[in-house]
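Recall from the previous chapter that SMILES is a line notation for molecules. Here it describes pyridoxal-5'-phosphate.
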Amino acid sequence: MIPIAKPLLGDEEAQAASAAVLSGWVSQGPQVAAFEKEFASYTGARHACAVSNCTTALHLALQGLGVGPGHEVITVSHSFIAGANAIRQCGATPVFVDIEADGYNIDPAAVAEAIGPRTRAILVVHQMGMPCDLATIVPLAKSYGLSIVEDAACAIGSEIVHTDRWTRVGAPIGDVVCFSFHPRKVITTGEGGMLTTNQPELDAKFRLWRQHGMSVSDTARHGSPKVIFEAYPVRGYNYRMTDIQAAVGRKQLERLPGIIRARRRLAACYAHALARVDGVTAPVEPAWARSNWQSYPVRLDTHIDQRQVMQGMLDRGIATRRGIMNMHQEAAQADLPLAFPLPHSEMARDHTMLLPLYAQMSEEDLNRVVEALAECIAESVGACHRTAAQ
Ligand SMILES: *Cc1c(COP(=O)(O)O)cnc(C)c1O
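With both inputs in hand, we obtain:
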C-alpha cells in the first residue's frame, strides 16, 4: 500500500521525547522556549510563540488583531474548516471569497470586491504549502487599514518573493503567521502550532492568553530565588504546547531542509511524469513562489469521474484524497449567507485529486502512482464512452 502521506520520525525524535520525560519537566518549559527560538530563527521572524495546534494559533492571531463581534473577516471557503471556526470563535463573521481559476489560493481580485465597512481582517491561506499572492493583497489591505493573518498550517519552509528577495513563509509579510505540526503537515509534534510575528505587543498577548492569562510563567516562578505570586490580569485559555512535543519539534526542525529537498525533487518527478498522462493537469508554481509541496494536487479534466479514479487507485493499493474541502458546502458553516458565488472553489474540490507524497517515497513508487493514474483515467473515460454508446 502506498499511503497519501507519512511523517518522517526516527530515533532522534524518540530519544528527545524520552529525555524530556526523564527531565521531570513535561509541560511548557525550556524545550518550548528553545523550539520557539529556533523556529523564529528558521523563519526569520522576530517572535515565535508555540501553542497547542494551528486552530488555537488562528484564534489568538485574530483576537490579537482585535477581531470581534460585528466584524467581518475575508477568507476562502476552499480550505480546512478550522479557518472559519476560528473566526466565529472570535464572534466575527467569515466572508468567503473564491480562489483563482488556475490554482488553489485566494483570488486577490475577489478580496478587493469583498472589502466593506465591517471588514476588519483578511485571513489568507498558503494552501497545501503554495504561497498565495501577498504582493497584491498586502498593499490592498494596507490601503484599507486591514490586518492580515497568514494561515501557513501547511507552509513551513515554503518561500515567496517579498520586496525583491526570497523570504521564508513565517517571516511575517502579513501581521501574524500560523503554523501546524499535525502529522499530515511537513513536520510534526503529534499536535502543535506556532504563531510568528514581528510585533512585540502581539507576541506578549499570545504568551499571556495561551496560559490562562497568567502574569508569570511556570518556568519563571520555579527559577526565581524570591517568592512570586502570579496574577491574572486578563481572561485567557490553556493553549500550551508540552515540552515533550517541543523536544520532538526541535529534531523535526533539524530534518526540515532535507525533507523539503526530497519533496521538491519528488514534485519535479511528478510534473515530468504527468506530462505524458492524458486528462490530468499538474499544479503550477508561480515564478515568485517555491512550495514545500505539503500536498501534490492534480486536476482531472471535467469529464473524468473523480470518485471512480480514486477507487481504482485504492484497488491498486494507492491512497489518494479528493481536493481540499469547501467550508460553505459543510453543514457546520451552512448558516453563513454567501456573499459571492464560489465556482472555482467548487470545481477545485470536485475535480482535484491529491497524490501520495512524502520525503521517504521512492521514485519507483512515484512512477507506480503515475502509471496507475493513467490506467484509472483511461478506464474511467472508457466507461463513459461505453455508457454513451449504449
Ligand atoms: C491543518 C490545517 C489547519 C488546522 O491545523 P491544526 O494544527 O490541526 O489545528 C488549519 N488550516 C489549514 C489550511 C490546515 O491545513
